[in-house]
Amino acid sequence: MKLMRFSRSTWGWIAFGVALLAVAIYVAVHWFEVIDDTEWIGVKGEAAVNPYLALEKLLVEQDARVTPLRSIAALDKQLAGSSSRVLILADRRLPYMTPARVAAIERWVDAGGHLIVEAETPHLDDPLLMRWSLDRKRLVWQRGQMVEAERKRPIKNSPANTHETDESEAVPDDADAEEEVLVEPAPNGGRRSRGASPFSLNQTLPPLQNMSRVTLSDGMTFRARFAAYQNLVVSPTASGRQIDSAVLIRDQNGGRIAEIPMGRGRVTAISNFDFIAWKSLSSDDHAELIWHLVTQSREQEAPTVAMLTRPISTGFGDWLGANAWMVLISLAALIAVWIWHVLPRFGPLMPATAPSRRSLGEHIRAAGGWLARRGEWSALIEPVRARFWSRLMIRHPRAASMTLGERLQLAASLTGRSLADINRLLTADILSRRDCLGAIKTLMAATARLDGDAMRVRRGSKPR
Prior knowledge:
- With 464 residues, the chain is an alpha/beta fold.
- Helix content is 36%, strand content 15%.
């Protein structure tokens, strides 16, 4: 086997290539730096319309059996079957929260279910929370702190039947001395309200709130940031079911979570679900807090969770039945009275009478009247002129070889009329009703004279 031999020039080019490759590697390693650049492309698909999709994925990753509810029928089936032990309800549920459905949810909780529910915004009714005497107080931003809109002084933490936040994060006591103030712009970091919100027009929302340490009734403590716009309060004067064992958990702004034991189950009401939306779920202990609430009363390893977090549009018929049933009953009564009133007119069918047979003369008169009303005088007189000429040709065949002038002279001699009169009757345009009827009568008399008939024409008759 012979080895391949290279010339000096070939070895030179190989050495040059190796040196060039070494220089390129050195430059790439020492002169350039690889930097990771993160580009946010925004949410798409289901995540764009469901802010709690990340929560669903988190629960599934934790081996929970999650059932998203997409209709009212699915919710009713879930309440009747009790296949899930935890039910998460978001806000914007007022259209389908009928008294019967609220009672069904209460029976489901009494049977051992755990309801985690978000309070409705302050400008909407919340019959579900009012069932357990829970009310809401709207928050506004005044002079660097959140206050309840119904009060003149900032809110302090109440020690009665509550779990307080850290003292360093509470509102100072000297704030009680402040008088009522006007709403002012938020400091740097504040954001302007957009779209529908519980805040008034031109009012600024507060910046991101400070972290709070929330201690639940079982002693577990979590760090959370609530972008709260309302407080939960226990209302003893409410018409709902009075609960003596309700535990209200507060942060530095007021009531944030209410825990209510009900029969074999429990209700966890939260002022707002903003902390478990996809933007905030990974912050602080938000994921740990919601997971602890989901697994708080479980009796098995894998919790079963039903989630109704997207607004459900009720049918138009259901909406009418829930909100306008009195109008529907009144309308049905009016329709029944109207039918009863007109019912005697709906007698047996009468046999249709055959129309009377018209004579030929009536049809001719009707056709002539229609042409006369349209001013079609030529159409009326042309058939009479054609009949006169046909009679003339029959009585005097030599007229067929005559010119028009010779025919007119022959007609004048036979009828005893002047040439000008015959020319007007047979060739001139008829422009009026009187001239048309007079010409027709004269031509009919002339035709009868050609036939030798004795047609009587009254001299004093006038056309109709």
